Amino acid sequence: MADWFAAELALWQSSVWVIAVAAVTNAACALLGCYLVLRRMSLLGDALSHAVLPGLVVAFAMSGSLNIGAMFVGAFVAGLATTFLTDVLHRQAAVPADAAMGVVFTSLFALGVVMLKWVGQSAHIDADCVLFGRLDLVEFQTVSLAGIRFPRALVTIAPVLLVNLIFILLCWKELLITSFDAALADTIGIRTSWLHYALMTLVAATSVASFEAVGSILVVAMFIAPAASAHLLCDRLSSMIFTAVGIAVLSAVAGYRLAVLTDTSAAGMMAVVVGGCFATAVLLSPRYGVGVKLWQNVATAERIIREDLLAMFYRLEELAVGRLLGPGEAVQAVGGGLLARWGLWSLRRARLIERRSDGVQLTNLGRQRAQQLVRSHRLWETYLVTYLDLPLDHVHAPAERMEHFISPELQQQIEADLNVVEEDPHGRAIPPRPDDPTNGG
Q1: How far apart are CA 361 and CA 168, in angstroms?
Q2: CA 231 to CA 204: how far, in whole Å?
Q3: Is 41 helix (H, G, I), strand (E, B) or coil?
Q4: What pLDDT sits at residue 8?
């Protein structure tokens, strides 16, 4: 155990700069990604990461080297051109935003590939570096600041993260309004176009600053996946931003550890991890998760089956049919199937029904529960006839559905509207309330 702990500590110490660069890069992308997701512009990060290629080629052709300053300027100009052309096509030519984005970034990327062939092989722009970056090598490419050696990639991306954070803090209200209701922002005098271009400029700068270290795959993933995951988990923008940044940082740490275990690309594994976070949010989000909704639907269906069984047993007691239903008969009476069997079992487990040698009957507690269901049903039938003037043969089916969703407060409101009523429109007695002194149950 001690040897394993020492090995793990040595691994983390040797990779601290790699994780730091990845975490800062991911956080910078996730901050702006929240606004891209809210504005339905998630593909812009993908567009920029592809469209900067002609800017890189032009910068190399003009400077004759792969100097980081020249490459940054060239890619940044290409990123701004992508944003501007996309916006012009959308606003001036009435091209849908997603179509305009697709046309611009594919065209510029294709142009970059052609230009790269013209410039020649001396450019040394490797496809793997374009896709995956050089994250594993960041600790070997350093610069000295105050006598301390820092990775060049960290020195490049850290100021971008700071600028993104300052921009969001200074323009919080404006970004909030324009992201949720651009028409309202225009009405109250906010210059939405300037704010849009400022945000797109930062997206371009972040994409370019991240490009060399982590490559286009991780940039695209971090612009979209953390924010999309947080959007499923949160209902407030502030919470969404904190959650997105947390997911981005977690993906950097977990992704690097998994990359070491599987001997694969660190940037690629980080993108896989953040994709897994998004898949988890899609399934398990408390309000919007597919799995949670499925579970809620199953739970609701099972509750309705249980209540239908209780109401059926109560009505049989009212009719005094002279015999009890067996378990199989009760299950078939409410439609049969696994859910009905489970409902009957759960009623017995909750001691709402009991099984006797001659069949199944309600317990005292089950009878009280059943009374309230039948009471809700018959009060609703009476309400429909009294206030909506529905014919008698049209009130049972809606009441049968509604009885499962009438809360005690709504039941009291219906009682108040009906004043005093003891029978439903069919002449059947309406069971008393549980707190009614006349209720012998």
Answers
A1: 64
A2: 22
A3: coil
A4: 52
C-beta atoms surrounding 393 within 10 Å: 7
pLDDT in the model for residue 441 = 43
Looking at residue 41, its amino acid is: M
| 3-class state of residue 434 by DSSP | coil
Q: How far apart are the C-alpha atoms of 4 and 243, rounded to whole Å? A: 32
- Under a CB-based contact definition with an 8 Å cutoff, are residues 349 and 395 in contact? no
Strands 353-356 and 148-151: unpaired
Q: Is the dihedral of CA 182, 186, 191, 193 positive or negative?
A: positive
**Which of 296, 353, 303, 301 minimizes the C-alpha distance to 330?**
353
For the chain, counts of helices (H) and of strands (E): 19, 4
Backbone angles phi, psi at 32, to 5 degrees: -75, -25
Half-sphere exposure of 351 (CA within 13 A, CB side): 2
CB-based contact 248:29 (threshold 8 Å): yes
pTM of the shown model: 0.77
CA distances from 79 to 86, 134, 211, 322 (A): 11, 21, 12, 82
Taking the C-alpha atoms of residue 194 and residue 46, their distance in angstroms, rounded to an integer, is 22
- Determine the distance from the C-alpha atom of residue 194 to the mean position of all C-alpha atoms in its chain, rounded to a whole number: 29
- Cα(136)–Cα(372) distance, rounded to whole angstroms? 67
Specify whether the CB–CB gap between 206 and 28 falls below 8 A: yes
Mean pLDDT of the chain: 82
All structural domains of the chain: 17-226 (1.10.3470.10), 293-362 (1.10.10), 377-441 (1.10.60.10)
Other C-beta atoms closer than 10 Å to the C-beta of 254 total 17
For residues 277 and 284, what is the distance between their CA atoms, to the nearest angstrom?
A: 10
Tokens of 31: 């901050």
- Residues 23, 245: Cα–Cα separation, whole Å: 9
CB atoms within 10 A of CB 301: 12
Residues 6+ apart with CB under 8 A from 167: 198, 199, 202
* pLDDT at 203 (0 to 100): 84
Q: Which DSSP string corresponds to 390-407?
A: --GGGSHHHHHHHGGG--
Residue 385: burial class (beta carbons within 10 Å; 0-12, 13-18, 19+): middle
pLDDT, tens digit (0-9, with 9 covering 90-100), for 353-394: 998 888 899 999 999 999 999 999 999 999 999 888 888 888
pLDDT value of position 377: 92
